[in-house]
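Q: Sequence in, structure out?
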Amino acid sequence: MSLAARAVYRLASRVSTLNLRPKPARHASRPTPSAGGHATRRRALGLALTPLIIASSSSAASGSNAMPETYPRPIVVPPPEGGATTAVCIFLHGLGDTGHGWADVASSMPFEGVKWIFPTAPTIPITLNGGMRMTGWYDINDLSIDNIKDDRAQTLASTEYVQGLIKAEIDGGVAADRIVVGGFSQGGVIALQTALRFPERLAGAVGMSTYLALREDFPDAMSPHAKDLPVFLAHGTADMVLQYQYGVMSSELMKDTLGMTKVDFQTYQGMGHSACQEELQQLAKFIANVLN
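A: Exactly. Output:
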């Protein structure tokens, strides 16, 4: 049985124990798993937070909010059965969540030799939610394609932070082409920025229910290795937070305008701003293939 087939078999055998679709959660509470456990609640931008959105005529999320000096310590899940680390997957959560919110993915995809890292974003004011402070990789002012404005300063700061995590793994002996970086929603934005700009060849990039930000920077900001970078993009047609068109637009831009040759865009009929079993199975296949 191939590595990809084993991964999908494991995922299917465990899927009944996973909460694959985010549940609405009270914004004042956060998952607090016990030591060694994984939170099963995944909160996504717009699910727990939509009631807090305040209409605003603010011109931009321009990065005027002060960027925190430090990021919380990431959740690190070592390779299964204590084996040596030969590859690394870094996965970033969405707005208002933490690294704990996606850490159960590691147990559902226990690839031999693969260490998982789930960073947590800093707590910053979010314009979309009336300035309320919450975990976010960058500030966001609006959800519509026509009105959303990139927060350049904080997007690049978070990108630099994740690139630092990758460099630390390389310094620790893991080859760059054995490292996958991915994320959901806001986390996917930072994952794509990180992968396209990183100076060394990575194994692959993942963007789930997300979009390519800072589009005016490309192709100039692209690494020479980004053209043939394997990329897994996934989006639901019923996404009412970051609409499906975000995924279509980003895929077309990466393939047609930037000339990226290995972009795989998957559509999930009827899926909202969340994840589903089929998507996670295809994610497992993608990771297995790029690390094989």
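The chain has one domain: 3-16+42-291.
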